[in-house]
Amino acid sequence: MGQQATYIEPGNEFNRDMNYIPDRITKDARTPEFGPRDVPLWPVEPGRYRLIAAAACPWANRAIIIRNLLGLQDVISLGLAGPTHDARSWTFDLDPGGVDPVLGIERLQQAYFERYPDYPRGITVPAIVEESSGKVVTNDFPWITHDFFHEWTDFIAEDAPDLWPRELREEMDEVNKRVFTEVNNGVYRCGFAGSQEAYDAAYERLFAALDWLEERLSGQRYLVGDQLTESDIRLFTTLARFDAVYHGHFKCNRQKLAEMPALWAYARDLYQTPGIGETIDFAQIKAHYYIVHTDLNPTSIVPAGPDLSGWDEPHGREALG
Questions:
Q1: 24-155 is classed in which CATH architecture?
Q2: pTM recorded for the entire structure
Q3: Where does the GST C-terminal domain start and stop, copy by copy (predicted)?
Q4: What is the 3-state secondary structure (H, E, C) of the chain?
Q5: What is the set of active-site residues?
Q6: 85-106 pLDDT, tens per residue?
């Protein structure tokens, strides 16, 4: 591997760069009903786009799961980068010859540069790439999965779950915002804190949110309403990585997930749902965090533990409805 990226700014708290390629893929390239509207639009078209993801990455894992649940596997192809990368880019080292079999590239960076030769930001997954041109379309992860549901409606499986029920959308927006800022991004604020003060503040915020979730999920099976929604998937991809990496590697160590009864049962419930658990690869998850983050783990040694064998144990959440 080449030169590694750095993730910690000494003395500072972690601030995620949320400036992504804003393009949207919509039905007939129409102006979207939700979210950013004054952005470049691409038409929904089966077989035109390839989702590039990585099993190791929680944001990309979300896109893989949503694609599975909606039954879009035959209309949006999937390419998987390996779990480790250097400062330049995710690479396709899981594929024969280290080359994506559809795009014919070794690094995701090549798809970004095909469209933006001087692309100045990080090369992130998930990304949507146009197969014919090899150009990246978007890497705006919250809207990628949102548009899978709202714009690819003609191709969604008949038995797919309603991941954005109209009557729950306002509450989902509120819950999603808190889950993202306090949990999804909260673990990173702990892990990439550049000072003791930044870490202490991040730690308190994270576990305040986890306590809120533990109480909320003690009385209801799902995060919003009485059915599986995208809100659950957004939380799940962080919970799935909590004991494997965030507890130790990111110092989120007040408790393990397995020591929070409602959250642990809830996470197992989702893990055992078809289309979700099979996307989790703990070996790749651990390799990514412990090998790539050399400023946290200079030796790149991947720990043998913890014991992650309990995910298939009965969860008992059916009793909540």
A1: 3-Layer(aba) Sandwich (3.40)
A2: 0.96
A3: 165-289
A4: CCCCCCCCCCCCCCCCCCCCCCCEEEHHHCCCCCCCCCCCEEECCCCCEEEEECCCCHHHHHHHHHHHHHCCCCCCEEEECCCCECCCCEECCCCHHHCCCCCCCCECHHHHHHHCCCCCCCCCCCEEEECCCCCEEECCHHHHHHHHHHHCHHHCCCCCCCCCCHHHHHHHHHHHHHHHHHHHCHHHHHHCCCCHHHHHHHHHHHHHHHHHHHHHHHCCCCCCCCCCCHHHHHHHHHHHHHHHHHCCCCCCCCCCHHHCHHHHHHHHHHHCCCCCHHHCCHHHHHHHHHHHCCCCCCCCCCCCCCCCHHHHCCCCHHHHC
A5: 57, 188
A6: 987 899 999 999 999 999 999 9
- Tell me the domain boundaries of the chain: 24-155, 166-320
Fold of the 166-320 domain:
Glutathione S-transferase Yfyf (Class Pi); Chain A, domain 2 (1.20.1050)
For 183-200, write each residue's pLDDT tens digit.
Answer: 999 999 999 999 999 999
